[in-house]
Amino acid sequence: MRQLLPYLGVASLLLAVTALWVRQIFLAHKSRIEVQVPRKGGARGGSTASHDDLGERIFSLEDWEFVSTNTPSQIQKMFLHERGVIAISWLRRTRMRISLVMRAHLAAAGQTENLHPATELKLALNYLVFRVLCDVLIGCIWLRGPIRTRKTVGQTLRTVVWLRGAFEQLLARVDPANCKTLRTSFNHRAARN
Amino acid sequence: MGPEPKNVEIDPAVRDLRNRTLVKLPGDFSRLVYLASSRDYNTGQYHHDGLSFHFSENVASKALAACHREVFDRLVYISLEELIEELDHYISSTDERPEVFLKSWNHLGSYRVTIPSECDELDAEVFLSNVKMALAILETRQKPASRDEQSA
Fold first, then answer.
1. DSSP assignment of chain B, as one string?
2. pLDDT the model gives residue A188
3. Which residue of A34, A148, B72, B75 has the fewest CB atoms within a 10 Å radius of its CB?
4. What SS3 state is found at A145?
5. What is the mean pLDDT of residues A23-51?
6. What is the CA radius of gyration of chain B?
7. What element of type H or E holds A10?
């Protein structure tokens, strides 16, 4: 048992450092994160340039506020079901895209000699947290629907949006080619134009 | 009407299409249906005689496709309330009775063919879901009105 103590100590220390680091990231960026919800009439002017994320549209509360005050319960149920299905599709796609880019990055990193272990570790942690959050969100939406869990969804979505940003920033430093692919795949409009 | 496409080749054709044809149509839903109907469902190519005459068949097809995507993008991102207004406006612009129109669109799912060929899968999913919701809401609004007509 005594032989294990040093290992346990190192593991605990690593866990504590990781937890502190994750906490610091969350606290530092929490206040800066803002999920832009498309404003009423904003699209009518014809600008599609600002719509760079479908997630914002899907999780927008504007539609639910309209449906809950102007339609019967049968329509409200239908709306919750429809939006839940789409929200889960969006999260699955986001998770899949990040996974693809991470895999591509790992393949590229395997051939690079000039690796930065600290940045790679941050990237890996970022990726893990992102994946876990996506799974948690899918579970929440599946169990309770996108609106009933809107506080959790809103908060987690902000974190997901921020993590995606942080992931992109880190990847841009380590692997600019894959980062470009990630940005293009998230913003298909940019790719199309 | 929207952001200028970056493709210089089709720019004049897009402007022509917007200024001469699309601007005259009542609302984005009408534009979407018009643009989708200019597409050959067998080949996916768009056709417009006037535009092909002034430019070329290829440029005309690309310009129609670009405008189709642009109008579609706008409709994906408007709120459900606005989409209902758009759809209602479109229904009023046709000669059909609203209840017949709604029944037909719900039953046949005619709105599915209005999706551009090169569009994102999830965008299409959001659009179809929103139109389905809009049709259901318009139908619930129709029911009391048709009951009133019958009792009168």
1. --PPPS-TTTHHHHHHIIIIIGGGSSSHHHHHHHHHHTB-TTT--B--HHHHHHS-HHHHHHHHHHHHHHHHHHHHHS-HHHHHHHHHHHHHHSSS-HHHHHHHHHHH-GGGGGS-TT--HHHHHHHHHHHHHHHHHHHHHHHHHHHHHHH-
2. 45
3. A34
4. coil
5. 40
6. 17
7. helix A5-30
Q: What is the pLDDT of residue B147?
A: 59
Q: What average pLDDT is seen over chain A? A: 69
Task: Say yes or no for a CB contact (<8 Å) between A51 and B73.
Answer: yes
The answer, yes or no, to whether residue A24 has pLDDT greater than 90, is: no
Tell me, yes or no, if B144 comes closer than 8 A to chain A by beta carbon: no
Which B residues 71-90 touch A at CB under 8 Å? 73-74, 76-82
- Please indicate whether residue B50 or residue A44 has the higher confidence score (pLDDT): B50
